[in-house]
Amino acid sequence: IKKIGVLTSGGDAPGMNAAIRGVVRTALSNDLEIFGINDGYLGLFKDKIFKLNRFSVSDVINKGGTFLGSARFSPFKIYNNRQIAIKNMKKRDINALIVIGGDGSYIGAQKLTEMGFACISIPGTIDNDVVGTDYSIGYFTALETIVKCIDKLRDTSSSHQRISIVEIMGRQCGDLTLAAAIAGGCEFIVLPEVNYDKKELLKEIKKGINKGKKHAIVAITEYICNVTELAKYIEKETQRETRATILGHIQRGGSPVVYDRILASRMGAYSVELLLKGYKSRCIGIKNEKLVHYDIKFALKNLKKNFKSDWLKTAKTLF
Ligand code: ADP
To answer: What are its E.C. numbers (predicted)?
Structure first.
C-alpha cells in the first residue's frame, strides 16, 4: 500500500477532524500518500478527491464538524455507482480507504471490501450505536452538550414548576439519553431499548407529583413518539405546565471534548497501522480502553450493542 484515501460519512460528529488528522499524520509518517475525499461516498462517486499534506490538518484538532464534509448518499447502494467510486480511486493508484462514520457508513465500507477494495472503518457518530466498540467518536462531546442543556432547562423548569420533556438524539440507541439523564438528574427516562407506554409514564409522573415534586425532567430518545403531543397529553392529565424541547442538531456541534480528541487521534493512527499490517476489511473499536479490530462483515452480522440495564436500574433508584 502506497496511497490511501480518507472520508467522513453519514451524520457528522465532533472529533471527526481529530480522526482525519490522526490518519493523515500517521500515513505521512509512514511515507504513504494520503488523499481526502469531500462529502463521504457522494464525493467518492463524484470524484472529489484531492491530496492532503501535514498542513491540511493543522488547527483542526479542536474543531467540531468535519472539514472534509459529510453526506448521505443512498445511491451508493447501487453496485455500478460503487464501481465508479472504486475507479475514481484506482485512477490515482489509491488502493485503500479509511471510512469515518456510523453503522450506515460501515455497510458502505463492507460493500466496497466485497468488491475487493480494502477499507478500515472508524466509528464516528454521537449516537454510540456502532457495534464493536464501547464508544464512538463524538459521543462524549454530545453528552456534555446535552447535559449543559438539561442544566439550563432545570433552572427554568424549577422556577416555573414546569414539567420538561427533552428529546435527545441516538436513533435506536438510548446511550446518550441514559447517560445524560443520570448526569442531568432527570426524573424520568424513556429509551428505545425499553417498552414505552405513555400511560405508565403518566402514572410515574403523577406519583412524583404526589411525593411533592415541584417540577420534573423527562429524558426521551428521538423517534419514540411525538414529544410535543406527549407534552400536551401530560399537561392535560396533570394540570401542570408541560413543554417539550427538541435539542436537535445542537447536539452534533461544538469543539470535541478531550476524550473524543484522544479517542479520535488513537483510532485514526490505528486505522493506518492496520492497513500497513495488511488488513483489508476491518472495523475499529475501543474495549476497556484498548483498541480492537474486527472483520467488518463479522461485526455487522454478529456483534450487538449491550444495553446498560444496570445504569437504568441505578438511575431509577436516584429519582
Ligand atoms: P451513518 O453512517 O451516520 O449511520 P447513514 O446511515 O446515513 O449514516 O449512512 C451513511 C451513508 O452510508 C449512506 O448515505 C450511504 O452512502 C452509505 N450506505 C448506507 N447503507 C448502505 C448500503 N446498504 N450500501 C451501500 N452504502 C450504504
So the answer is: 2.7.1.11
Question: Which residue of 39, 66, 77, 136 sits with most ligand 1 atoms within 8 Å of its CB, as the best mutation to test the pocket?
Answer: 77
CA distance 309 to 193: 9
Q: Is the pLDDT of residue 319 over 90?
A: no
Which ligand 1 atom is nearest residue 42's CA?
16
Query: Would you call 129 helix, strand, or coil by DSSP?
Result: coil
What pTM did the predictor assign? 0.96
Burial class (CB in 10 A: 0-12, 13-18, 19+), 78: exposed
Q: What pLDDT, in 10s, does the model give residues 244-258?
A: 999 999 999 999 999
3-state class of 221 per DSSP? strand
- Ligand 1 probe mutation, 8, 9, 127, most atoms within 8 A of CB: 9
Three cell numbers at 191? 429509551
Report the length, in residues, of the chain.
Answer: 319
Q: Say what the ipTM of the complex is.
A: 0.97
Question: How far apart are the C-alpha atoms of 46 and 44, rounded to whole Å?
Answer: 6
CB-based contact 275:4 (threshold 8 Å): yes
